[in-house]
C-alpha cells in the first residue's frame, strides 16, 4: 500500500512538473510581447532609476493604489534597465510568478482535498487537475501578458501561499507544535501583509481563510488549542471584520455622492450590472474562447434598470438560484457552496460598489480557484468505478484549455489581426479602437485609422481623448480639417471627463502636432486646450488644468512669444509641480538672460517640494544640480549656446536631458517629454 502511494506521489509530482513546464512554454510563445495602456503610467518612472536612492523613491511613491503597492514596484525596479526595450525579460518574470502560483494551487488543492478525502492518492490527482486547469486557463492569460498585472499575480501568489500554510496547519498531527503556530503567523499574518502590499485585494486573504474554515474544514479537524484559536481570531477574524466594516462605512457616501465625472456609470448602475459581468466571467472561465482573451474591455455597457436590458434581471435571478441550490446541497455536495462562495468573495472588492472599471478578466485570477476546485473535487466524488472515465474527461478538458491558450499566446504578437478581433469582440472599447488605430498607422493605413476613430466617436461622441486624436489624422484630407476642428472643439466644451485628454494635448504640443495632419498647428492645439478649460471638470482639477496650461505654454514657445510662454510655464508648475516643466521654463528664462527670475523661481520650487522624505531629497538634489548648471551658464555667458539649443527642433526635455547629462557625465538621457507626460497622466 505504501509502495503504491509512493508511486502515485512520484507520478503526480512528475506530471505537475510537466504541467508547469508546459505552462511556461505556452506563455513563452507570446514573447517578446509589448507594453499596453496601463503599463506606461505606472512603469515609465523606471526610466528615471539611476541608483538605489532613485529606486527607493520609485518604490515608495507608487500611485496605482491606496497602499502604493511597493512590493510589486520593487520587482519592477529590479528590472529597471529592461524597461521599455526588453519586454521579454519583463514578461518572463510575470510567467515565472504564474508558475510559482500554479505550484501553490497544487499544494492548496491537495490540502483541501485531504481535509475531506483521507485517501492521499485521490487528493494528489485532485491537486494536479486543479493546478492544470487554473494554470492553463485561457481567460486568465491577460494577467500575465499585460506587464502591469504582475501586481495581480504577485498578490495572488502571496494569498495562495498564506492559504496553503493555513490549510496544512489543520492537517498537522501534533496540534500543539510550534510548527502550527508558525504556519498560522506566516500564512495569515505575513501572507496578508505581503499580498496587500503587492495589490490591495490581497487583504481578502483573511476572508478566504474564514471561508475555508467555516465551509470546508470539518469540525473534527479544526484547531482546538487556545493559542491557535487566538491566532486565527487575531489574524483572520479581526482583519476580515475590519475589511467588511471599512466597506460598510464607505457604502453610504459612495451611494450619495457617486464616483465623480471620471466614471460613465453610477454606483447603482455598477451594482446592477455586476451579475451580468460575473456570469460572463463564469462562462469564459468554464467555456473559454480565444477571441474573449482581450486586454480591452473598457466602457462595458451598464444597465439603466433591472429590465433595461432584461438580461440584468435574468443574471441576478441566476445567481440567486445558484446560491440557493448550493445551500440546499451543502451536506451532499459541500464543494458547490465552498467553490461558489470562494469565487464570490474573491470579487468582493472589484465587483461590488467600489468605483473601478466595470470589467477586467484578471480579476478572476484568485476567484477562479474556487470554481476549478469545486469542479475537479466534484468529479472525483463520482463512484470509484467511473474513476478512469473521470480522469479521461479531466485530461480532455485540460487539453482543450491548452489548445486555446496556445492559440492566444502563439498569436499574441500579431498585433494588427488581434486588434481587429478584440475590437469586434468589444466594440464599445475606446482603448481597443485606439490600439487598432495605432497598428493601422504603423502599417501606413491612415485612412483606415481615421475611420476607426470616427466610428468610435459616432458611437460615443463625448470621448474627449478620441476626439482630440481624430485631429491628428488628416493627411490627404487637409481641406476638411477646419470643419473637423470646429466639430471637435464644440464637443470638447461639454465632453466626458477624461484626464488623459489634457495630457494628450500637452504631449502633442511638445512634439510635432502636424506629423500626420499638416493642418493641425499649435494654434489648433491651443484652441482645443481653451475648449477643455471651459469644461468645468477639466478646469477644476489642478493636475489636468496644469497640463492644459502647459499645452498653451508650448504653443507660445513655437509662436515666439517667450514672455507669455514663461507665464504659462509658471502657472502650470504652480498648479501641479513637475521639475521637467520647471526646467524647461527656466531654460527659456535663462536663454533670455533673466537669471534673477530663474533663481527666484528655483527658490519657490524648493518650497513646493514633495512631503515624502525620499522624494523630497531627490527633488532637492535635482534642483541643486540645475542651479549649478544655471550658475555656470551665467558665469561663462552661455546664452548663445542655450539659444542655439532651444531653437533647434529638439523637444524641451531632450534639451534638459542634454544639460543634465553634460553636468552629471551620464551617457543616457532622461526620458522624453512624451514619456514624462504619459507617466504623469494618473497623478
Describe this structure in words.
The protein is mostly helical and 683 residues long. It is built from 32 helices and no strands. Helix 22 (499-509) runs parallel beside helix 25 and helix 27 (579-591) packs across helix 30. The chain is globular and about 85 Å long. The model is unreliable at 641-683 (pLDDT under 50).
Low-pLDDT parts are 641-683
Q: How many alpha or pi helices?
A: 32
| Mean pLDDT value | 89
How far is the first residue's CA from the last residue's CA?
63 Å
The chain-level structural class is mainly alpha
Name the beta content range: under 5%
Dominant shape: globular
Percent helix range: 55-70%
Q: How many β-strands, per DSSP?
A: 0
Radius of gyration from the alpha-carbon trace, in angstroms: 28 Å
Major β-sheet, in short? Answer: none
Overview features:
683 residues; disordered C terminus; 32 helices
Topology at a glance:
Layout lengths: L1 H27 L10 H5 L8 H9 L9 H8 L9 H30 L3 H17 L5 H4 L4 H22 L6 H21 L6 H11 L10 H32 L9 H20 L24 H18 L5 H13 L20 H14 L6 H24 L4 H11 L4 H13 L3 H14 L4 H7 L10 H12 L6 H11 L12 H12 L2 H5 L1 H18 L2 H14 L3 H13 L3 H13 L5 H23 L3 H9 L4 H13 L8 H7 L4
Helix pairs in contact: 1-5, 1-6, 1-16, 3-4, 5-6, 5-8, 6-15, 6-16, 8-9, 8-10, 9-11, 10-11, 10-14, 12-13, 14-15, 17-18, 18-19, 19-20, 20-21, 20-22, 21-23, 22-23, 22-25, 22-32, 23-25, 25-26, 26-27, 27-28, 27-29, 27-30, 27-31, 28-29
